[in-house]
Design a protein that fits this description.
This protein is α/β, with parallel strands linked by helices. It is built from six helices and eight strands. α1 (about 70-85) packs across α5 (about 145-155). The longest helix has 19 residues, at about 70-85.
Length: about 210
């Protein structure tokens, strides 16, 4: 049931545990507590997000979809840095648009070692109010030329979009208790902290037991 060294590669959202008011959360800022949610593992077991918080920090990175070259690049760069980040007490989880079967197949080919949550209905994006761009022009405005040059190195090809093509990304880091210690909402399609940037930003964040 597991694909790489016991790490669950692809899961799918099945239900959200709403907060006391029964509504989704607004922008997740530092100090807020991230709502818990349930998801289905590939082996059929149901897990909750809070039970996954076993390291000093867990970064939940909301990407766009696997047809997006930038989302492929971000996933591959975190793949390459994953063992270093784990050794520093940082766990990685990613959320991405797309059906479970398609996401599972693609991430297996990419040798992704961390948990990727397939969210075809955008349940988590909507619940946590991850914004979309207001136009294709603004989605790509100011795109990183440096990241575009990395496409060739990784052999990345952009493919058809899957879901909301205007969806932006977000990087939310929580501690062991689910409290947000760092949040970054992307301004454009390339605005996701690199693994080294994430590591450097977390150096200034105290570890809470």
């Amino acid at each position: 049931t597991n694909l790489f060294n016991g790490t669950e590669i692809c899961t799918i959202i099945i239900i959200l545990q709403q907060n006391a008011e029964g509504v989704g959360q607004v922008e997740l800022t530092e100090g807020a507590e991230m709502d818990d949610f349930l998801f289905l593992m590939k082996n059929g077991s149901c897990e909750n997000f809070q039970s996954q918080l076993k390291r000093d920090f867990t970064a939940v990175i909301f990407l766009r979809h696997l047809g997006c070259g930038m989302s492929q690049l971000d996933m591959l760069k975190y793949r390459d840095a994953y063992h270093f980040l784990k050794d520093q007490g940082i766990e990685i989880m990613m959320v991405i648009q797309g059906a479970e079967a398609a996401v599972s197949e693609r991430t297996a080919k990419m040798n992704i070692p961390f948990t990727v949550i397939a969210d075809p209905e955008q349940s988590l994006y909507e619940h946590f109010d991850i914004p979309s761009s207001d136009s294709m022009r603004n989605l790509v405005y100011g795109v990183s030329e440096e990241k575009l040059l990395e496409f060739e190195y990784y052999g990345i090809e952009c493919q058809r979009f899957e879901g909301n093509e205007l969806q932006l990304q977000a990087t939310i880091v929580v501690d062991r208790k689910g409290q947000v210690v760092l949040s970054h909402y992307s301004e454009n399609i390339s605005d996701v902290p690199s693994p080294s940037e994430l590591y450097q930003m977390l150096q200034a964040v105290p570890v809470r037991s």
